[in-house]
């Protein structure tokens, strides 16, 4: 029974977080910001206000596909956020600019996350293969290697949290101080940013739970040997 509850939780938690962010985004993407600025204009203003004239802004296809690319120094905004003037679009655009600001200021957690990317990719792609082969072949050493790789991916998820929270805090500070939103629009803007942050919290929580479960299974294998 406990096994069923556990797997229900690791499935339900991410789905619930995704539903929250989609619901908040859908609701506030229909509410126009008082400034009337598009997401692209919001991003450009905050970048210029912080002297980041070298950072470009591009439209990217998809919904909630917005991101900052540190390699090309480009903020990419999904079509609705790029052209639209909603509170949700302003919040998302400001959040991505927050990452550009982190990059420009050499924010420690962002640098650490970038350094973890190669190891985290290996962990995400190969850890389960090693773990499953180790279980079926009763090779505890292979299971341990898979757990080590998975641990690297989990650390990446955990380090992502302060990066995302900091970007959201920067976003709120910038759009308020620049007058992009009014005081009575702050609550709605925070709802969008908090809902987005919840997806990262959910992902990190599930990753930690899975890692703990595998460590317990490995410990059980060792006690049986």
TrEMBL record:
GO biological process: proteolysis
Keyword Protease on entry: yes
Cross-referenced InterPro entries: Zn_peptidase_2
Gene Ontology MF annotations: peptidase activity
Domain of life: Bacteria
Transmembrane segments: 128-156, 192-218
Pfam families, sorted: Zn_peptidase_2
Keywords: Hydrolase, Membrane, Protease, Transmembrane, Transmembrane helix
Protein name: Zn-dependent protease
